[in-house]
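Hi C.,

You asked whether I'd gotten around to modeling the 424-residue construct. I have! Everything is below, sequence then structure, no commentary in between.
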Amino acid sequence: MRAGQDEPIRDASARRGGRRALAAAVLAAAMALTSACTGGGGDKPSSWQGGGDGGEKPPKAAATISEPAADAKDVPATTAITFTTTEAQQTAVELKDATGEAVEGTLAADGKSWQPDDALDYGQTYTATVTATGDDGKPATATSTFTTMAKPDKQVRVSSFLGDNQVVGVGMPLIVKFGRAIAPDYRDDIQRRMTVTATPAQDGIWHWISPTEVHYRPKTFWKANSTVSYQVRAAGLPLGDGWYGRSDLTVDIKIGPSFVMTVDNRTKRMTATKDGKKVKTILVSLGKKSTPSSSGTMVVIEKLRHTVFDTMEELGPEEGYRTEIDYAQRLTWGGEFIHAAPWSEGVQGKTNVSHGCVNVSMKDGNWLFANTRLGDPITVKGTERKLKNGNGWTDWNMSWDEYVKGSALPYEPAEATPSAEPTA
């Protein structure tokens, strides 16, 4: 910060004379020396430029930077600029690197901190400046110059299941994976740096599936044809035991039309609904009593135009089978699919004969395969077995209240609207 300096006061009525001229010169020099006042960073108060008696009054506002402290070393690359102000009508934060280039960032909603949009460079020096302006229009500033940590040796990889520009179904959870287990004490830190922006806006929350995997879903199914962008700012973030996030991650996707499937074991029929309108009723055969299908809400995990189901190793030569399958759409990790089953077409709509899958005809299997996307939801009702959470992307098999419990941070609704369960 540069120190201010007032102009020396000049007495218009000064008379000629050695003593008076000398006294005026001494007074002017003394005031020039005492009028400069420097501010500081860290825990030092903000600066103001003013004079002594008869000079300009100091600003009403004041600012102090608490973190990073002035001259701090080994500062995490994800550091926020934390500060306090008093009697400030306006507050501005500026962060510059050693070359004077400004760093982009965002002021927190509570007005008490400022976060860089991206991780800072390792081993570099930065200067933060907080300027507070009161109702007198006079600015007061505080500064802090600090140096970031060296690049860490132990870094955790962050990845996304989905890629940019992918189009998915209305039940698709956002899936982020970490290359190392994140301890519970650090999950809130990383979750604060995970943001989701949907257009149109939709309430949602992150849910930790495991120490290495976290999902996000909205309160109800995604609105059809939404655009969704999610970001994980993990680069340089401490993640425990000397490990740090390797890099940031940003993914932009699109939600397709609403395509929802509902299967009723009582009627042995599937109802397909597109954008809220029923478009097709399909006869099905579900799992027989010894291998029942799971009742619950699942989503399409993968689509295989042609594959082979091989259970010989799992079930043995007496119960196992090896069968070619068309139009297969995986619903669970345990092996439940929607797929074409020409061998059961004669009993579809009447009897359950499958090993847990949703059997449909070749014609209907082809039609479904052409109309579905990853993330399209399917709800199966009335079977002998309930879907086990974790057996697939079962985010929608939990109530909203159950899902919120899996977050490391409290749920903060964007609007005061009542909770709603996903519906078709």
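If it helps when you're writing up: The mean pLDDT is 87.

Thanks,
B.
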